[in-house]
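Q: I'm writing up a methods section and want to include an example of the input and output format. Could you take the sequence below and give the corresponding predicted structure tokens, formatted cleanly so I can copy it straight into the document?
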Amino acid sequence: MLINFLPTHPNDLLLILVKKVLNIFDVRIYIEVKLNNLL
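A: Here is the clean output for your methods example:
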């Protein structure tokens, strides 16, 4: 899911970046938990 970076306020860009990073961490944690449950 790619976000188009339109000219917006810097705060909006920061929010988008933070959300993307949090999403990446959520996915990593989810995968780790799934793997631990399988083992």
